[in-house]
């Protein structure tokens, strides 16, 4: 007597029996070219991709060599056949000039109620574009007034004169874009619900005013001269990448308020030996009385510096009663000199609930053992703190 496998029919189409939600999840994990090809799997899968809510077009969609024309020829038929809502759209283009097809694509999206848009030059494949190779963002993007998330990378951003921002935008990222100070500030202030702003800017030195009353996450890297956080009372996370001799003004020195909601500060490339950087970082953390987490990478030995800082910058009279009353975790990389050590001493002595401080000494620094002994003998405001040294 032939045995039949329990629970399975010989004619059962397992692929077609998958739940609709699972089919959608599978399609979003595939390159768009492969998602289209799933139409041959079964009758139920035919044209399922035309209802995908997330679309990604990049170098994986075309055969080598990766060219803009090939990408456009792949993308336009897919968009024209698409029959549903498009909530998320990501387009990675090679830095080889503009194409009418790209403009048509963006105009199409502006009419489909797009929520999340990520438009970038494909840096991973071809490297960062030179300033002259950056492509102009089509003005149709600024008609996408339902956007909640916008990421632009390696592009020239020039909104039309009547554009002031996005009424629904919550997340804005400008990465290596060519954009003026006026445009940046208008995009921020014209997006009243903005909660997260990321910028990596290296074209010029800006004195940037951030006017965003609902902003919670701020990430900055590049060549800024000044930053004024005029109306950002709800900040929770601040991440700053300091570049030597770039932050030359009173960066963060004109903070208009105490940031009671600020819980996490991440600062990369802090030069405690340089007076301006030490002072501005000093000023920033003192305006965050409820700080819970702090991550810092110091600069390596021999890093260029302007005005030398005083070792006693952390022992000012006005700081006699200062405490990090909620600071629980500190991580610090590339510690290499007595200025870095003085900051660690300050933190250990002013953090009564600190649970752990993790320290990595710079690979080539001299006197590592002496630095370790110094830190281990510093006074600790918290009896429970663990001091960990890592490579």
Q: Mind explaining what this structure looks like?
A:
The chain is of the alpha/beta class and 391 residues long. Helix content is 22%, strand content 25%. It contains nine helices and 15 strands. It has helices at residues 20-28, 32-37, 68-81, 100-110, 123-126, 181-189, 275-286, 338-349, 368-376; strands spanning 54-57, 88-93, 116-121, 135-136, 149-153, 155-156, 171-175, 196-211, 217-231, 237-241, 264-270, 293-298, 329-335, 356-361, 386-389. The strands form two sheets. Strands 1-2-3-5-7-8-9-10-11-12-13-14-15 form a 13-stranded parallel sheet. It has a two-stranded parallel sheet with strand order 4-6. Strand 1 (54-57), helix 3 (68-81) and strand 2 form a beta-alpha-beta unit. The longest helix is centred in the N-terminal third of the chain and has 14 residues, at 68-81. The protein is elongated, with a radius of gyration of 26 Å. The relative contact order is 0.05.
Structure in a nutshell:
This protein has 391 residues and is of the alpha/beta class.
Mean pLDDT: 80
Structural class: alpha/beta
N→C terminal distance: 67 Å
Spatial arrangement of strands, main beta sheet: 1-2-3-5-7-8-9-10-11-12-13-14-15
Q: Determine the strand fraction and express it as a percent band.
A: 15-25%
Low-confidence stretches: 1-9
Tell me the number of helical segments per DSSP (H or I, 4 or more residues long): 9
**String of helices and strands:** HHEHEHEHEEEEHEEEEHEEHEHE
Q: Bin the helical content.
A: 10-25%
Count the E strands.
15
Radius of gyration: 26 Å
Describe the largest sheet: 13 strands, parallel
Large-scale geometry: elongated
């Amino acid at each position: 007597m032939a045995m039949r496998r329990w629970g399975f029919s010989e004619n059962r189409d397992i692929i077609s029996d998958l739940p609709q939600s699972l089919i959608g999840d599978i399609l979003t994990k595939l390159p768009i070219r492969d998602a289209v090809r799933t139409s041959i799997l079964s009758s139920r899968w035919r044209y399922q991709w035309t209802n995908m809510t997330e679309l990604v077009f990049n170098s994986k969609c075309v055969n080598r060599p990766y060219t803009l024309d090939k990408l456009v020829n792949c993308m336009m038929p897919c968009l024209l056949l698409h029959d549903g809502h498009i909530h998320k759209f990501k387009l990675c283009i090679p830095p080889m000039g503009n194409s009418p097809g790209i403009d048509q694509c963006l105009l199409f999206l502006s009419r489909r109620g797009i929520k999340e848009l990520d438009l970038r030059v494909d840096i991973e494949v071809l490297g960062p574009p030179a300033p002259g190779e950056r492509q102009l963002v089509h003005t149709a993007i600024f008609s996408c007034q339902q956007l909640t998330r916008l990421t632009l990378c390696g592009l020239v951003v020039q909104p039309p004169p009547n554009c002031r921002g996005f009424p629904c935008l919550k997340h804005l990222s400008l990465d290596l874009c060519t954009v003026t100070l006026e445009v940046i500030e208008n995009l921020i202030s014209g997006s009243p619900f903005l909660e997260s702003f990321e910028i990596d800017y290296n074209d010029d030195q800006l004195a940037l005013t951030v006017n965003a009353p609902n902003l919670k996450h701020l990430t900055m890297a590049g060549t800024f001269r000044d930053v004024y956080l005029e109306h950002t009372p709800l900040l929770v996370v601040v991440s700053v990448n300091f570049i030597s001799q770039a932050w030359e003004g009173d960066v963060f020195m004109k903070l208009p308020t105490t940031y009671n909601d600020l819980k996490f500060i991440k600062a990369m490339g802090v030069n405690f030996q340089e007076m301006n950087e030490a002072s501005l970082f000093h000023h920033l953390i003192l305006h965050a009385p409820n700080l819970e987490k702090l991550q810092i990478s110091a600069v390596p030995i021999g890093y260029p510096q302007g005005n030398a800082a005083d070792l006693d910058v952390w022992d000012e009279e006005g700081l006699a009663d200062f405490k990090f009353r909620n600071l629980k975790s500190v991580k610090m990389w590339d510690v290499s000199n007595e200025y870095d050590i003085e900051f660690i001493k300050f933190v250990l002595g002013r953090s009564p609930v600190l649970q752990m401080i993790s320290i990595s000494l710079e690979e080539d620094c001299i006197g590592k053992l002496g630095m370790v002994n110094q830190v281990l003998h510093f006074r600790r405001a918290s009896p429970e703190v663990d001091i960990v040294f890592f490579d």
